[in-house]
Design a protein that fits this description.
The protein is an alpha+beta fold. The protein is built from 3 helices and 2 strands. It has a two-stranded antiparallel ribbon. Strand 1 and strand 2 form a beta hairpin.
Amino acid sequence: MTQFTHLSSRGQVVIPQEVREELGLEEGTPFAVTVQREGVLLKKIELPKSWDKTTKPFREAAKKSGFTEYDLEEAIENVRKAKSR
């Protein structure tokens, strides 16, 4: 099946409805984006069905403690800096 789409001014690409339905894509579906010589490859990432159940306690603890996405990014950056030394 070949469908056509375009890139928005915000860098977003709409996946046509027929393709979304055929592949079972829903809002929030994660993708890997790979640059290839002839273009860009989007590959749906299949998370374990129990992913939400597995991560729920961590998300709840983070919410209770006030741990933010910024805090997470800062922690990751600190680990990367420590590894590069």
